Amino acid sequence: MNEKTTAELENLRGLIDGVDQQLLHLLRKRLDLVAQVGAVKHGAGLPIYAPQREANMLAKRRAEAKEMNIAPQLIEDILRRLMRESYLNEKDVGFKQVKADLGHVVIVGGEGKLGGLFSQMLTLSGYQVKSLDKDDWVNSESIFDGAGLVIVTVPINITCELIADKLTNLPKDCILADLTSIKGAPVEAMLAAHSGPVLGLHPMFGPDVGSLAKQVVVVCHGRDADAYQWLIEQIEIWGARIVEAEPSKHDKAMQLVQAMRHFSSFVYGLNLYKEEADIESLLQFSSPIYRLELAMVGRLFAQSPELYADIIFAQEESLVAISDYLDNYSQALSILKSGNRDAFVEQFAEVSRWFGDFAPQFQRESRAMLQSVNDMKTG
Amino acid sequence: MNEKTTAELENLRGLIDGVDQQLLHLLRKRLDLVAQVGAVKHGAGLPIYAPQREANMLAKRRAEAKEMNIAPQLIEDILRRLMRESYLNEKDVGFKQVKADLGHVVIVGGEGKLGGLFSQMLTLSGYQVKSLDKDDWVNSESIFDGAGLVIVTVPINITCELIADKLTNLPKDCILADLTSIKGAPVEAMLAAHSGPVLGLHPMFGPDVGSLAKQVVVVCHGRDADAYQWLIEQIEIWGARIVEAEPSKHDKAMQLVQAMRHFSSFVYGLNLYKEEADIESLLQFSSPIYRLELAMVGRLFAQSPELYADIIFAQEESLVAISDYLDNYSQALSILKSGNRDAFVEQFAEVSRWFGDFAPQFQRESRAMLQSVNDMKTG
C-alpha cells in the first residue's frame, strides 16, 4: 500500500469514527426518550409492546429511507434491534400493577429458572412474592395463608402428583396456575385439587430471554376466568402475546414442536459423536446455514439433560410421532439405496406442493437469519 | 387512556421521530464515507473485507458505548448490520482486476445461478466473460479459442463426464477450474482432461448472497498453483475467505455438512406432510427456536428438487453417514420405548461431554440468532 492510499484511508476512517460517535449519542438520546415513553405507559398501565404503533413507525421510516436512497430494510433492522434494547430497559422502571388488592403470590418451584423469571416480573409489578421449594413444605401452611395466586413450576414428571398431594388446601378464592409445558394433565389435576379459579400457562420461551416483549404465552382456561383476567392483562403489560388454546390441541402440537424436535436434535448430536466428527473442521467448511444448524443442535447440550428428558418423556403419544419419523426416514433411505433419483425428486416435489406458500415465506425469513449469521463472523 | 397521557406520548413520539430522522442522515453519511473507502481500496487493489480493522473499530466503539451506558452489544450489532450494507454497495464501484493480461473467461454453465454470480463478479472486475451453455457446443471451438480461464459449473451428476468428453482441447496455458460441491472426482477429471493449470473451487454459499464478504470458498489445488494464484487473490478481493483443503477431506466433511443435513431436513418436511401437521397452528405455538427450525426446513422446499438430489446422490459414501444416523435414531428410540429415563440422561450427558466448550459457545451464538428472530415479529 503506498503512502497516498494509506493517508486517504486514514482520513476517511477518521471521518467514519466521527460519524460513529454521533451515532452513539443519537442512540443514547433515543434510548432515553423511549425510557420516558415507558415511564408514561407504566403510569397509565399500557402494554410495553404496541404492534400497531411499531408497524406505523417502521413504515414511515422505510419511506423516508427510500427517499434518501437508503435500503428500507437497513433502517428497519436497526430500529428493530434498538426496540429490543428498549424493551430490555423497561425492566428498570418496573411495570404497572393490575391487581393492587391481591394477597401475596406463592411460586412453587421459585428457585428454578422459569420460576425465578416470573418471580422477578411479578416483583417488578409490585406484587409480594414468596418462593416455596423442596425444603419449605414444613412451613407451607403459613406460606399459603392469605395467598391470592399460586403458580406451580416444578419438573413435569412430578407436577400432577405434587398438585394432587399438596395443593388441596389453598384459600378458596386463590388462583391456581401452572407453567408446565404440557397442559392437559396439569390443568385437570389443578381442577381436581382446588375448587377456586384455575388456569394453565405455557410460556413458549426459555428463561434466558431478557424481556417478555413479543414472546408467546399459551393460556388454557380452567375455571372462573373472570377471577384471573387481571393476570392475563398483567402478562400482556410485560409485552407478551397471549395465545388461547384447548389443552388437548396444545399438547398435540407440543409432540411435534417440542418432543420430536428435541429428540431429533439429540440424535443429531449423538450421531456426530458416534461418527467422531471433527467439529472444528466441520465449522471451517461450514456454510452459514450449516453453522446455524450446528449451533441449534449444540445449544441443546449446554443445557440440563433432565429438562429435555422431562419434555421428551412427558407425553406417551410423543413416542408415536418420534416413531413415525423413523419410519419416514427409513422409507426415504430405501429410495436413496435403490438409486432411484426420479422417485426422490417426485417425493420432494410432493412435499413442496404441500408446503405451498409457506416454503417461499420460510426461505425469505431464513435468508434474513443467514445474513445475520454471516454478519457475526470475525475472521 | 386519558388526555394527558395521550399528549405526553405524542410529544415523546414526535421527539423520537426527530431522532430517527437524524439517524437516517447519519446512515446516509456513513454509507457514503465507506463507499469512498471502497473506491480507494478498489484503486489500490485491497480486499473489501479487512478483519483486523473491523475488530479494532468494533472494540473502540464498544468501549465508547460502555462509557455512555449503552450496551456494547447494541452498537456492535448495529455496526455489523451497517457493514453488511456497505459490502453490498461495493458492487457499484466494481473490483480491482488482478490479472489484466488474461484472455477471456468461459463459464461452462454460465446460465445457472452460481455461474451467473461468478460471471457478474468477474465482469465487475474487468474481465471479459463468455457463457457456454447446452446449445453453444456447436461453437465451442471459437468460444474456447484464446480463453485464459474456463470455469465448469454444471450439475454434479454430469460434471466429470462433461470434463472428460469436452474439455480435452483447451489452450495449453488456460486455467481449468470447477465450482462443484464435491471435489475429489472433478479435480481428477480436470487433471486427466487438461495438461495446464487446474484447481477445484467450492463456494460454500448459495447464489442468493448479495455479497461475497466473509463467505467461504474452498480451494483444492490441482496443478501449477503459481499460474492461478491471481484468481485466489481476486476472490479474496471480493471479500471471501479462502480455505485450502485436500479433496478427500473436503468430500468426507460434505457427507455430514451437506448430504446428511439436507437429507434429514428433507425427511423432517416429509414427516410433517405425512403427519398432516397444521403449519399455521404449529407457528402459533412456536417458540423462536422452533420457528427458526421450521424456516430452515421449509426453505429447502422452495428450491429445486434436482439440486438437492444432485447433492445427496453425489457421493456413494454419503449413504453410510445417512444410514448411521438411522441406526443411532433407532437405538435412542429404543431407550425411549423402554421408559429408561436415566439411560437417556446418561447418553445425553455423554454427548455433552464430547461437545465440550462448543456447547456453551453454540448456545451463545444461537441466543443472538433467536433474539433476532423475535425482533422480526410483527404482531
TrEMBL record, chains A, B:
<dbReference type="InterPro" id="IPR003099">
    <property type="entry name" value="Prephen_DH"/>
</dbReference>
<dbReference type="Pfam" id="PF01817">
    <property type="entry name" value="CM_2"/>
</dbReference>
<dbReference type="GO" id="GO:0006571">
    <property type="term" value="P:tyrosine biosynthetic process"/>
</dbReference>
<feature type="domain" description="Prephenate/arogenate dehydrogenase">
    <location>
        <begin position="103"/>
        <end position="366"/>
    </location>
</feature>
<keyword id="KW-0520">NAD</keyword>
<dbReference type="GO" id="GO:0008977">
    <property type="term" value="F:prephenate dehydrogenase (NAD+) activity"/>
</dbReference>
<dbReference type="InterPro" id="IPR036979">
    <property type="entry name" value="CM_dom_sf"/>
</dbReference>
<dbReference type="GO" id="GO:0046417">
    <property type="term" value="P:chorismate metabolic process"/>
</dbReference>
<keyword id="KW-0057">Aromatic amino acid biosynthesis</keyword>
<dbReference type="InterPro" id="IPR002701">
    <property type="entry name" value="CM_II_prokaryot"/>
</dbReference>
<keyword id="KW-0560">Oxidoreductase</keyword>
<dbReference type="GO" id="GO:0004106">
    <property type="term" value="F:chorismate mutase activity"/>
</dbReference>
<dbReference type="GO" id="GO:0005737">
    <property type="term" value="C:cytoplasm"/>
</dbReference>
<dbReference type="InterPro" id="IPR046825">
    <property type="entry name" value="PDH_C"/>
</dbReference>
<keyword id="KW-0413">Isomerase</keyword>
<protein>
    <recommendedName>
        <fullName>T-protein</fullName>
    </recommendedName>
</protein>
<dbReference type="InterPro" id="IPR011277">
    <property type="entry name" value="CM_T"/>
</dbReference>
<comment type="pathway">
    <text>Metabolic intermediate biosynthesis; prephenate biosynthesis; prephenate from chorismate: step 1/1.</text>
</comment>
<dbReference type="InterPro" id="IPR036263">
    <property type="entry name" value="Chorismate_II_sf"/>
</dbReference>
<dbReference type="InterPro" id="IPR008244">
    <property type="entry name" value="Chor_mut/prephenate_DH_T"/>
</dbReference>
<keyword id="KW-0028">Amino-acid biosynthesis</keyword>
<comment type="pathway">
    <text>Amino-acid biosynthesis; L-tyrosine biosynthesis; (4-hydroxyphenyl)pyruvate from prephenate (NAD(+) route): step 1/1.</text>
</comment>
<dbReference type="GO" id="GO:0070403">
    <property type="term" value="F:NAD+ binding"/>
</dbReference>
<keyword id="KW-0963">Cytoplasm</keyword>
<dbReference type="InterPro" id="IPR036291">
    <property type="entry name" value="NAD(P)-bd_dom_sf"/>
</dbReference>
<feature type="domain" description="Chorismate mutase">
    <location>
        <begin position="3"/>
        <end position="94"/>
    </location>
</feature>
<dbReference type="InterPro" id="IPR050812">
    <property type="entry name" value="Preph/Arog_dehydrog"/>
</dbReference>
<dbReference type="InterPro" id="IPR046826">
    <property type="entry name" value="PDH_N"/>
</dbReference>
<dbReference type="GO" id="GO:0004665">
    <property type="term" value="F:prephenate dehydrogenase (NADP+) activity"/>
</dbReference>
<dbReference type="Pfam" id="PF20463">
    <property type="entry name" value="PDH_C"/>
</dbReference>
<dbReference type="Pfam" id="PF02153">
    <property type="entry name" value="PDH_N"/>
</dbReference>
<keyword id="KW-0827">Tyrosine biosynthesis</keyword>
<dbReference type="InterPro" id="IPR008927">
    <property type="entry name" value="6-PGluconate_DH-like_C_sf"/>
</dbReference>
